[in-house]
From TrEMBL:
InterPro entries: Glycg_phsphrylas, Glyco_trans_35, Pyridoxal_P_attach_site. Its cofactor is pyridoxal 5'-phosphate. Pfam families: Phosphorylase. Keywords: Carbohydrate metabolism, Glycogen metabolism, Glycosyltransferase, Pyridoxal phosphate, Transferase. The keyword Transferase applies. Its EC number is 2.4.1.1. It is an enzyme of class 2 (transferase). GO terms for molecular function: glycogen phosphorylase activity; pyridoxal phosphate binding. It comes from the Bacteria. The keyword Lyase does not apply. This is Alpha-1,4 glucan phosphorylase.
Amino acid sequence: MTKRSSSLLKPTEQLLDKPALRRGIANHLHYTVGKDAEQVTDRDWFMALAHTIRDRLTERWMKTTRRYQEKDVKRVYYLSLEFLIGRSLNNSALNLGIAENFRQILTEFEMNESRIADTEAEAALGNGGLGRLAACFLDSLATLDLPGEGYGIRYEYGMFHQHLHQGWQREQPDNWLRYGNPWEFPRPEILYPVEFGGRVVEYRHENGQAAHQWTDTEHVMAMAYDMPIPGYDTDTVNNLRLWSAKSSRDFDLEFFNAGDYIKAVEHKNLSETLSKVLYPSDSTSLGRELRLKQEYFFISASLQDIVHKHVQHYHTIENLSHKIAIQLNDTHPALAIPELMRLLLDKFYLTWDRAWELTVNTFSYTNHTLLPEALETWPVPLLERLLPRHLQIIYEMNHRFLRDVAHRYPGDGERLRRMSLISEEGTKQVRMGHLAFVGSHRVNGVAQLHTQLMRDTTFADFEQFFPQRIVNKTNGITPRRWLNEANPPLTQLISDTLGHKHWLKDLTLLKQLIPFADDAAFRQQFRAVKQHNKVQLAHFVQQRCGIILNPHSLFDVQIKRIHEYKRQLLNLLHVVTHYVRLRDNPQIDTVARTVIFAGKAAPGYAQAKLIIKLINDIADVVNHDPRIGDRLKVIFIPNYDVSTALKIIPAAELSQQISTAGTEASGTGNMKLALNGALTIGTLDGANIEIREEVGADNFFIFGMNAEEISALKRNAYSPLFYYHAQAELRMVLDMIAGGYFSPDAPDRFQPLIDALLSGGDYYCLLADYADYIRCQNEVTQLYRDSEEWTRRAILNTANMGKFSSDRTIKEYAQDIWKIGEI
Ligand code: 26W
């Protein structure tokens, strides 16, 4: 376009004052939604508000892109199969600083703000911790003005919706795009072919060297959708690019001409399944073909895009690792390593050594779990069929790597077997963790203990061979989402008390609250905020579940995916213990408790689904026992998602973080709850250890064995039956569950859970930790009676959580791993 015509195309400036916003909303109701003022619904209002924000984001987004280009900055690309963004309306309005103006405008029109906000479908493109971490990181990158872009998949169906049917989990598809997604910009012109299958031909390149061509492949097209990611209190707006699968041929002409219309569209349907649905499992790698195709589809499109943009700008590939860094969010995108090698070898004709140097210097890999069943492996025959050239490259990587290992440790065949990228037991499998490790210059864990366990266990051989490669980057959460948006009254109280709002950008400033813990008037205000939030949650629970909560009871919360290692069942053992004590001693002097659970189970995870049923069966008995009254209530809030978390977390007083020591890599819910003034009852696991260090041991309820004690216990033939026989109360509780006390309609229902504990070896050591957990819960009860002391400790939690801002985490990645700087 000529200079003259492009200046003619200058858009109107999109201002943030009330008249401009009002005009924006009116125009969008009219021209975007296409409705008369009389007909507009809450959803129409949502659409108009979203588009009004989007206009403002677009301008800043383009400026940000231009700024990065002019300054020729090094960029980071965050590759993740999951981005658990949640809703965007409120968050974007807050980050842009127009939330208050919106509120006033909606009041003028007598519109109900929260009803409008509730019409927005969540972008639930993730399972849990790993996906939400990616979303927090995007917020921090933009807020810190760092040139970081996310790449992911635009799943047509996100995380399933959870319903309860007689206490059992039922899954329903999440058709989140049904009413359109106002935040996305489809980019039909940004389209890349992704190849599968075929065969590899060796030939001699004109430079005289042997070269490889992957041919006779099937194609699927990847089309880009962009989503603007606004920083808080800055004009920076970064990009999240999500890929959608499109058929490469709308109609297969051959079939079409032969008159088979259905066959002709079949290929279209098949190829478009690749971005159809998020795999709803966050703990087991199933080794499914469709999942492998999804992973390759995603990284192939992302790398083509990254390399294309790079070469277009620099006209060379030689400076790739100086200008870009790529972070792999777990091994799910780890095929990017052989894929970049393939591009450098087969398209740019670099030598192996040069290609390898560029690749390793570009990539870094984050490990999020050490649970063996969650570590990805792919069968060699599957790779051979779908990605034959990649398999060749992986074999060559392995050959060279093992040659180096053998050189360093001559004669140590056992070590070679352990370190190989290929496991040889049964069907050969590619070990994606080993692949990601060898192909990255930095590998990180997500909390200190987790990183140490990586060094000592899963990656011990690798730590020896590549010292310094493993580093720690303790997770964080964004205070914009998890305080500013989640908890407006606490945000207000903090800002009023400190006299500024800088703390939302430098969370360590919360330490200025420490002296106020000893100020009775402040404690009173802090308690009033918590009380207000508890009442709000009680309203919500009454609406969603029809159950009335006592807002003066202790709100005891465990919200996270349902998994045996997270030990929701241990929580239940305490609930039943407490129930029996109350039942049998009506005059016992105790504090009222409401035990709140929420979380989804992977659809194929039978034990986890049974735990949900047990929670609900116990709730049924306890909540209807007249001898208990409202001294104890148990509640399972269905369909836990980001929006539900925003409602529960500000109201929580006790945060349960009770995984078996050594199993929870970090946890991030633990951070959200403590930041909002909940006291933690927790094991020495994941980031709990660092939270306790920061908030002070006196302000944290710790119990149970530490990771070393657990591993010693297992080494020494742990016997759960010993604990069962030694502890009468424990025995009674387990017998009640096993004997059908909570399931008179099906007395054997929970036998599989009991078997896992008593005859299955109690892998997660619930019985070993039971007694200390009960002791610790009694301490909680005692302290809750002293509401001044409880509040003092709650304030000290909030005040000392500054370390856990994802801004700190991202700064560490930027400095130590990506080598990118502020601009
Ligand atoms: C291939 C199946 C699969 C899918 C996802 C296996 C494993 C995963 C994730 C690694 C599970 C996950 O979300 N891990 C969590 O990551 C959080 C962010 O680092 C941590 O805080 C949690 O402790 C960890 O469980």
